[in-house]
Amino acid sequence: MYIYLLYILICMLLAMAANIFSSIKPSSTKAANNFICFVALVVIVFIAGIRDYSVGADTKTYLSALNYYSSFPQGQILDLPLVWPYDFEPGYFLFTKLCAFFQLSDTAFLFVVAVAIYVPVFLLIKDYSSDMFLSVVVYFGIGLFAYSLGIFRQMIALSICLVGLRFLLNGNNLLFTIFVLIAAAFHTSALMFGLLWFYNKFPLKLVAKWSIPISFICLLFGREIALLIVRFFPMYSTYIGSADDIRGGTYVMYALLILLMLLSIRLISCFENRGNRISEIIKLSIWALCLALCVQAVSYSMGLMGRSLGYYTVFLIILVPELIKQLFGKHGSILALYAFVPIFLVLGLSSLVSFPYATII
User: Residues 239, 304: contact at Cβ < 8 Å?
Assistant: First the structure.
């Protein structure tokens, strides 16, 4: 657990150093922030890469698959079929066989996976976040870091989607769709990312205002909605009625999402009153928050639905710093340090309790 706190402390010191450097030489602010973001990326990749093989929900399963295919002669590996219990999508299966073909060790494999997962996330932070440190804390707080230590297929799929995000923001829907389909070849749930295409198709303030009552409806009829969704993804039908068909859970995240939505509605009103235009990434982030509210509500009736939540909550790493910056002005940094950072830290560390950190050394 201490290694996670140490990483947060390192990011905080890096952010302080960037602020000091920027105050001394304002013209170098962007370069300083880019360098700090790069250092934070290298450290998190290192932490994930040298961890013990027991850290992470499905780490052992993925390493077992790697070792199984590595045991065959190199010339046969790429032609080998998928065998039980490695029930992988074709994209991740090919990824595993390529790593086996190049005879990667378990640790080298974890480093490759870490790079694939974290680089697109930190590029998103670098390009769009107004507070790198807070973005990292939010990433921990919403559980994505805990997921990244063991849910490889889905987290790589999310990162592929993030690579294709810039095409959506630039209006290139074809390339965006291609990236979503590539991501779905790693985990089928990536198709849910395609719903972000609608982010600029409806009045944002209207959608934001209605998202909370709609989420209440999703909460009441979550089971029926979940069963309807599963009909379109029959590969998940085996979960229904199984031990993995989990219901219930804490409502802390749901309450937090509602709070952030109320702040987002206020943010939209502030931009309207000032006559300012909301950036495309913030529009998309608020739309993603609307979807996250509904998915979170449905997931209480079928835990399986929560697997798609990360495709939407990842944009909180951009939205939360912007909310604090725009709504609280000069007092925002104090509010972030004494309110938002502790909240997200507690949430993040609680999601990591099941995976006590250890290194391979």
Answer: yes
